[in-house]
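Hi support team,

I've been running sequence recovery on a batch of backbones for a student project. Most finish fine, but this one hangs at about 90% for roughly twenty minutes before it completes. I'm not sure whether the input is malformed or the queue is just slow. I've pasted the structure tokens below so you can try to reproduce it. Let me know if you need the job ID as well.

Thanks,
M.K.
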């Protein structure tokens, strides 16, 4: 049976990170996506506001996730 610590650290270790490094990164992505979603909702009502904010944010997160995945594989 896995220990409590293993449950929290197994996935970050698979990606070459500590728990807190993974926490910071995942939270950053999450907050970016929340902002992106809010910007898209505001844009839906007011199409002249945040014209590219949601797609720009999504592209940035995707690029960063792919970069980190490639870096993890290389290590």
């Amino acid at each position: 049976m896995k220990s409590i610590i293993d449950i929290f650290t197994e996935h970050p270790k698979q990606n070459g990170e500590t728990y807190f490094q993974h926490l910071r990164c995942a939270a950053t992505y999450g907050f970016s996506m929340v902002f992106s979603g809010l910007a898209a909702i505001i844009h839906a009502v007011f199409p002249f506001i945040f014209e590219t904010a949601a797609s720009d944010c999504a592209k940035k997160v995707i690029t960063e996730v792919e970069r980190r995945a490639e870096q993890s594989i290389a290590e």
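--
Follow-up from support: It reproduced on our side and the slowdown came from queue contention, not your input. The chain has a mean pLDDT of 91. No action needed from you.
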